[in-house]
Write a sequence for this structure.
């Protein structure tokens, strides 16, 4: 009795052979046609090549992506498309776009705002990076002596190490670099970062005298620096400026005045009834400032936690002309972090000093004025930290909250 026809037998054999062929190729067969996954790229910035990673997710003609801050996903796209090998991603909270072509396993294109573009290129990430084993332990906090452009005498270098993998962040008076990460290769640590902002590459060479030789490359070019342990830095007077000792007000007995329009065109002033008897944080900021992407969600959390107790938060937003006339980037920034506190359009960044005349040495972004219930400035905090600053980030957030609690007169149990 014949169980199968010859045609049916041939079809079954074809199916078996096709299955064997796919099995030999492995589960990733054909995956090269879809660019989804993590890409190892290079950004050409300030005459330097800054390595970074970009994750892509493509489904039919839709695309999304995000950068990385260390190993943490960061700066997600707000919209995107993929067609004919062309990737288009929008990052509306920065007002930026990414345009790239993927061909033969390589990506090449650019990223930026308007005509201000940065060339990017690279290949898909395939294998885990293999660092040189037995790296020396350089973890902890170091001090970088220098005469900074904002009057600083030193920066902090914060290093978090796990075997030969390293995360690094340089903390300046106005905030940190984000998390540069990488590892140890043949006697040298190489780390870098680019999350659509704060580009940086740092080459660290341990020295025999327990110092670190540094080469820092970013949008300003490259510079050689040195890092010392705290005792060595103290001996030469290299002490970083504390965030509350940089900017002040000319007259602490004078109420802090502001009067600017909100995004709906309504004038909002410190004399409004809604601020009477309240603790007010006035945050001088710009949606273009990376540190504001660190501080904004934290301030929102404070506002939601303590608004019922009398806390108000006002963002004095300084934007370049095009985004001041059409505040679409500010609106996207607000949507991204679901911010509910008040935003006022104060002017362009170059106008900040003139428009906040009570401030002394106002030259860092962001700068936050802590105003008591009597309308007087009690302290001024400059800059903000990211998770890359490790214990310093924890300390910054605790200091902000503790001061709010004290000004509100809340007694903690």
């Amino acid at each position: 009795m014949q169980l199968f026809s010859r045609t049916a037998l041939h079809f079954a054999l074809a199916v078996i052979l096709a299955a064997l062929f796919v099995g030999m190729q492995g589960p990733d067969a054909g995956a090269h046609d879809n660019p989804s996954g993590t890409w190892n790229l290079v950004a050409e910035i300030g005459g330097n090549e800054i390595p970074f990673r970009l994750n892509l997710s493509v489904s039919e003609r839709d695309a999304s992506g995000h950068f990385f801050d260390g190993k943490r996903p960061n700066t997600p796209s707000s919209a995107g498309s993929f067609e004919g090998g062309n990737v288009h991603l929008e990052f509306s909270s920065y007002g930026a776009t990414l345009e790239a072509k993927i061909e033969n396993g390589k990506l090449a294109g650019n990223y930026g705002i308007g005509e201000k573009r940065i060339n990017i290129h690279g290949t898909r990430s395939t294998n885990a990076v293999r660092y040189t084993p037995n790296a020396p332990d350089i973890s902890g906090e170091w001090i970088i002596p220098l005469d900074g452009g904002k009057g600083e005498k030193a920066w902090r270098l914060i290093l978090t190490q796990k075997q030969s993998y390293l995360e690094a962040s340089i903390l300046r008076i106005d905030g940190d670099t984000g998390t540069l990460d990488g590892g140890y290769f043949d006697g040298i640590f190489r780390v870098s970062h680019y999350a659509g902002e704060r580009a940086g590459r740092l080459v660290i060479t341990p020295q025999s005298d327990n110092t670190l030789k540094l080469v820092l490359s970013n949008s300003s070019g490259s510079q050689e620096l040195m890092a010392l342990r705290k005792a060595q830095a103290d001996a030469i007077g290299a002490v970083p400026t504390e965030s509350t000792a940089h900017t002040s007000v000319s007259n602490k007995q004078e109420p802090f005045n502001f009067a600017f329009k909100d995004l709906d065109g309504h004038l909002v002033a410190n004399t409004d009834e809604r601020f009477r008897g309240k603790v007010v944080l006035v945050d001088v900021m710009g949606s273009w400032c990376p540190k504001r992407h660190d501080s904004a969600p934290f301030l929102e959390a404070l506002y939601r936690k303590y608004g019922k107790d009398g806390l108000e938060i006002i963002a004095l937003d300084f934007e370049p002309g095009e985004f001041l006339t059409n505040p679409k980037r500010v609106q996207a920034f607000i949507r991204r972090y679901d911010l509910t506190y008040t935003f006022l359009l104060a002017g362009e960044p170059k106008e900040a000093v003139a428009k906040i005349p009570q401030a002394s040495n106002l030259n860092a972004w962001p700068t936050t004025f802590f105003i008591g219930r009597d309308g007087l400035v009690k302290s001024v905090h400059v800059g903000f930290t990211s998770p890359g600053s490790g214990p310093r980030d924890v300390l910054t957030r605790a200091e902000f909250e503790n001061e709010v609690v004290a000004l509100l007169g809340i007694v903690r149990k």
